[in-house]
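Task: fold both queries, return tokens.
Query 1:
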Amino acid sequence: MRNIFKDIYLPIRFFIWGSAIVMLFISCYAFPFLLIPSEILLLLFLALATTDGITLNRIKNNFTCSRKTSKLFNLGDENPVEISIQNKSNLKINCVMIDEIPIQFQRRDFEFKIVLNANEKQTIKYELRPTYRGAYHFGKINLYISTFLGLIQYRITFNESTTVPVYPSILQMKNMEMRAMSKISQFKGIKKLRRIGHSYEFEQIKNYNSGDDYRSINWKATGRKSELMVNQYEDERSQQIYFLIDKSRSMRLPFHDMSLLDYSINTSLVMANIALKKQDKAGLITFSSTMETMIKAEKTTSQLSKILNSLYREKESKTEANYEILYSSIRNSIRIRSLLILFTNFESTYAMERVLPVLRKLSRFHLLVVVFFENSELKEFSAQDPQKISDIYLQTIAGKFISEKEQIVAQLKVYGIQSILTDPKNLSLNLLNKYLELKSRGMI
């Protein structure tokens, strides 16, 4: 008996009708002739509510419900979830579905209202955007059913508990791979770069087109074909590319609900995949106050999986980054010239000047690209029209911080260090363009 009543709920319609009958009984003190109609309405109300409850209890086993998710979620992307509900009874039923989504989303009102006709099946689709890596636990699915009377609700619980890991975005990785590797379509945001000179990797002989380097004309092939033919070269392969990720507290700053570290992790996976597709060797180094992860640059079939699993486990640190340890580790473990892409964040010129000696030493032995971030919220605030005097002062200070970031770019350029100052949302695209530029210029 207790198990029956624990799943019975009284909706708002029950209390509305109950309150109306109570008011009718109260009015009997002034109008005694209403007593008999009030008693009849009360008995009718109780009879309908009892019938409603018995009907719902009888058909409770005629419902099925299941949840469908992908094996893993992509960090920072919209991930689809499907819930299928089937009504096998011969009654039209109103349903309220409450899905116990992972606690990380902090949603307490995640419900859907649907109407299921007799023997009907419906699918509810929604999307979730995780902003943290880790394990996300889905709980039960609670289905609250009611008939057209709406006096009683009956809860049916489906144990669809499952755990879905949230990995660095594989969806972004595939999307950027298609943009970088496509030889047909020109995608928005990908810069079309003219090759300066050529590398030593010969690819094929082709017909001359306007804009081709005339120094690449193959005169022997031209004589045989009686038309201009040129040698086509491709980018050099098997070059080492290391992604250096600063995990210190400066990378904990959030933008659009994700930390700078997570933006860097997503982009590292994207670029590692593209580098491997272009037959380069990709490696990973993460550090904070100590050296933490070191994956040697290789181009084996399992290399991307190693990098992906390592990035999934990375955690932010509350300490300052130790660049001296980073330099020592790189000098001892990376013997040949490589492309080093450093993800960090400088909020002031002082922060950059503290690590500049180490960056200069690294740039002597390797091609170093320093990636740091614009404060997009400051840029939006400084672009607004001031409404009062205090806004002018605040926007002036915001402009000073923005100007400091640009000074950092200029100062790094003086010492021959490549840099990218980017909005976190455009990080992958800007770094991809930089990588393609360096490849086309033969700098790596």
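Query 1 returned. Query 2:
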Amino acid sequence: MTKKTSVLLLSPEIGRLPEDMGTLARFISGKSGGMGEVVAALCEGLRERGIDCHLGTLNLKKRFKEECGLDEEQWRDIRYRIDPDRIHLVNASFLANLTSAYSGNPVLNAAEFQRQMVNHIIKIVRAKSGGRLIIHSHDWMAGGAVTAYAKATGCPVLHTIHNVHTGHIPLDLLFGVDVEGLRDYFYMSGEHGRQTVDCQATAIKNAGLINFVGVRFLYEILEDYFLDRAIIPASVRQEIKAKYHHGATLAILNAPSRLMYPEVCPYLVRNYGPGDDVLAAKKENLVAFQKRTGLLVNPEAILFYWPSRLDPSQKGVELLEDIALRFVIENSDVQLAVVGDGVGRDGKHEEVLGRIAMASGGKISYHHFDESLSMLGYAAASDVFGASLYEPCGQIDQIGNLFGATATNRDTGGYHDKIKEIKLQGEGSDHDEGNGFLFRDYDPGGLWHGLSRSARFHRRGDAVRERQMKRIMEETRQLYDLSKMIGEYVAAYERLNGNKPLS
């Protein structure tokens, strides 16, 4: 009998997990960013293939309780009575009241995550699988000491780079870890006069394979894009180039979990798929969204939807602020909706967008992130848009397309990979193609240009729009099928497993 090799996914974020990850799964999963969603989709797909899959993540008790509507006694009952099975939670008192892995002190959170993984969780999972284990780390927080320890002990690592940020953990925060034994595997850095571990660079250095979630962003790094901005740390760029020259880089595009599809999304007033009357369903959801957000109720409005965080360093929120009010004034049939939070403790852009919404007379709305409202927004949207300076992958375009919306964004990274210009049969093309609109310049004029082109498309007749919506929905399901993504990851695991199957 062939012995199985297990996969341990390590991620500080997690989306909605499949039920066969264990009973605890439905109590610790919820809406997350693109990284959390792809990890959840991986759990779903690997379990379907019979692969022994485990997950290590942070126990953000306050968030989990709120998302499940549980009080302290109910939560305690769940934790004491339910076998966590394949889910391994990192527990610490200072993590309990955090709403995300990156709130509070992210360096302290990362140090605790890595300490418990190295000292306990990896050993437990590895022993259960008879020593046959592959670690799949996600983001800098799951790198650092974890990947150094894995390399030192002969455990293969696939490291997925969802973003290029890094964190620097002082060695004294890794107490209990044999840092002297791992020193040769660390990428050391110096922050504020202390010896620190560069977590992202260390992960890349020690991984047998590294994976990008988009092709274009990998080549932007290799070709020295963004040298004029503090986006990609020199250490990270250096280690990526080294891995590339050793043939150890992959690019596997994210695919959304099937739980994200509008056919099954629980937050819509009318579920639908590409075989349904898409335009009618979207209009019903649009009216419901308008009522919830305070927009003028108009089922014929062209709704541009921004579902991203308000991040001026990457997402271009300041470009949106510059043009939003003028754009809806000059385009009387357009509405704009933003559902997203500011970054960290910076409430500046939340305040600015709130003031813009108040001045718009019901043409613009701004709301903090709420999962039910965010998903309803996708169903309501004519176009899902952003203005990214750079983008490793991006997910809002995929989800928008799944829900029958076009996508508009800057021609960079993952959006370059996934957004293709809409061309209609008989209008310069011999067949209908494309799913959205790209603009080049990272400035207000660039965003205005992209939105204007999308608005012109959405002013076409219902028959044209219905046909294109259905086509885009069907093509998105084919292009980003979960089984295809899982197949590529399994091939990477097998490569790390000595070119042998996992089971």
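Both queries returned. Flag for query 2: Residues 106-128 form the longest helix (23 residues).
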